[in-house]
Amino acid sequence: MRTPALKLAFLGDTKLFYFKSIFEGLENFCRTDERAGLFQYLGRGALHLSVLQHVNEIDGVLTTYPPDRLAPHLPTPAPAVIHCSGHFWDDTVVRVTSDDVLGGRMAARHLIQTGVASCLVVLPYPARYAQLRMQGFLDECASRSIEACSFELATEAPADPLIFFKQIYAVEKDFLKLIITLPRPVGIFAVNDRIALEVLELLKSIKLKVPQAVKLVGFDNSPICENHRPTLSSVIPDSRRIGFCAGHLLTDWILNGQPPPKETLVSPLGIEERESSGREFSEDPVIRKLIPWIRQSLASPIGVDDFAAHAGCSRRALEKRFRSELDMSPYQYLTKLRLRRAKELLRESKFSIEEIARATGFENLNAIGMAFRRHVGQSPTKYRKIHRDSGLEPSPSP
Description:
This protein has about 400 residues and is an alpha/beta fold. Helices cover about 45% and strands about 15% of the residues. The protein contains 15 helices and twelve strands. It has helices at about 15-30, 45-50, 65-70, 100-115, 130-145, 160-180, 195-205, 240-255, 285-295, 305-310, 315-325, 330-350, 355-360, 365-375, 380-385, and strands spanning about 5-10, 40, 60-65, 80-85, 95-100, 120-125, 150, 185-190, 215-220, 235, 265, 270. The protein has a six-stranded mixed β-sheet, sandwiched between helices. Strands 2-1-3-4 form a four-stranded parallel β-sheet, with helices on one face. The protein has a two-stranded parallel ribbon with strand order 5-11. Helix 4 (about 100-115) packs across helix 5 (about 130-145).
């Protein structure tokens, strides 16, 4: 006899990119597992919390709200609840979230590999996720004997707005005083992308160049990373896998009666390297003009001679510019971009590896295989398998 579909619900703010991706992961689970055939999204805010009491027969809830806010609004009997937010400290709840300590370690390793002389982690307030990311970052720096410190770029908000703005000014002034004392280049890890952008604006105010003098990495890989100059490197949390995994744990919990472990950690996918920590941000007008064209032409059989023709200079001059500005040849830069795009398609699309090879400018399966084994250390097939272990259904390619 077929088990009736469970009623699972998501309660959280999907206007935030991180939580929206978790929602999509849970939604995908409910589409692909017949045990959880009915899915409800209950929205956000106090109004929606109160609606919980009037929704019939919710079997399980995945939420971003802390337990003290959620508990008074749960119906009786209370459904199974899994939390996916890392903001609050509470060891009594069941939680599925990103491995924030590992994310901090990834950020440190990435910055150290770029050759920084010192490191700094910047956090907005003592939220749980911020503390854990800071811990991972500082531990990794210490293990590699790199000078590192932390700075809290936030203040308590007093009732008087004037006092509040004076406090912000004082904190920002202290931050800039610290930055100019650190050995350069400085590697800065901001524990979320919003704080990273605040740091970027402060650095611009004293004309410290990113990534030449300061290399900067955020966390969340949200769309705002692409909307600033230089673009922002960021740790990529596997948010969809968090939602998918939480749906699976909720369903097993409800049907089997055995609660899951108190905490399930999902490893981040890695670092999305952009201009703020990489070597791709150039003030050379020829290279700045050429980079967007290269990115748009990845699928075409272009080579260094095509670069030179598009740039309007000789091949030799172009090679010299690339090595001076980006510390790599035009061909190495092209291969780097092709591999980055191929990895995105392997993670996110249903394309075959042969189709991905064509879409990223590799001549054939052998060419993409050789490039992956040389630069990634594994075959495209193995890379795809590792990044599909979450069980997520890949989204169609655009």
